[in-house]
Amino acid sequence: MTDTPHVETEPHSILKQPIAVWALAFACAVSFMGIGLVDPILPAISRELNATPTQTMLLFTSYLLITAIAMFFSAFISSRIGVKRTLLIGLALIVVFAFLSGAAGSVDAIIGFRAGWGLGNALFISTALAAIVGAAAGHSGEAVILYEAAMGIGMAVGPLLGGVLGSISWRAPFYGTAVLMAIGFAAIALLLKKAEHTPEPVELAAGLAAVKDPALFTLGLVAFFYNYGFFTLLAYSPYPIDEAAAEAGRDFGATELGFVFFGWGLALALSAVFLAPRLTRAFGLMPVLVTILTSFGVVLAALGFGVHNLTAVITLVIIAGVFIGVFNTVLTEAVMEATEMPRNVASSSYSGMRFLGGAVAPAVSGPLAASYGAGVPYWVGAVSLAVSLIVLFAGKRSLHRIA
């Protein structure tokens, strides 16, 4: 008889979550710091290790490529050894390879260590998404918002931490991440005991086989082309900002770059938590996906035209964070709801396609800029978003569960 008031209020209270969920969210935030952490120190690594922008952007590619490949098999691993063990192994690998990246003596060594870092990241991130959705109180959409909020906070704090520590040395951000990940490891080890469970056994190729599902294939392909644009912005932008600052006679070091991408990440986090759920309630998942893809494409095209104007580049990069935050949340929620397959399988398969698109962008952006001009990588990113939009419309029939 006393249940009625709780039924009405609890689903809307995203903050009322078990402590294990908050431990996972903290570790997720720290994990995502590793993505944006290197942004402010890319120019410094280029200068101090005598590397080209194309070489240093491979720090993203090796990380994201291994992350993507491993994602397809993370559901198999977690179903065999358990969610908690998978999370802890992933975190331990990140600690080790983040430390080794800081101790590296060449850009090639860092590229290699970032690949190992990506393996740990894959085991942790895809498992954490399914774990948060499974352990959170309320609707799966609320759990996704928490996950994307953690991602946004990590994306915001990562560049800021990278910038502040990078002003001391380009090595310091890597050591800092190793320490934070060790804290995340301890939090999961201590607080996830009650949430420990072993999912139903999953076949080795389940993540790859899941791509055959029409809805998952459509959304995974949308994520692939979208993430190409996303990581064009994230991995490539430090170089146009650095060059535009030099042309304007401004001293723009790691700290200043850190603050720019902190603003971007903050916009991402706030829009993921506050704007995305309001937009989906008001208009529905599909209209929001279409609108945000279009808007983000316009921003990337504008960056291509304003690439030599420091104020324009900084402003547009931060604005892009708003669209990215909304889209990440809405697309992830769509994946969780669009198919009947186990969430850990859907999460690993979708995440693999998602990060694979991100891995391509840094490898392509450097050569494009060197050969055709600084604005071209942004225009190619805008075209990739247009392709993502076409895929979304072409596969609309398979998305009847979310339409």
From TrEMBL:
Pfam families for this protein: MFS_1
Main location group: membrane
Residues covered by the Major facilitator superfamily (MFS) profile domain: 20-399
CDD domains on file: MFS_YfmO_like
Membrane topology note: Multi-pass membrane protein
Annotated PROSITE patterns: MFS
Cytoplasm among keywords: no
Gene3D superfamilies: MFS general substrate transporter like domains (1.20.1250.20)
Protein name: Multidrug efflux protein YfmO
Species of the source: Corynebacterium jeddahense
Gene name per UniProt: yfmO
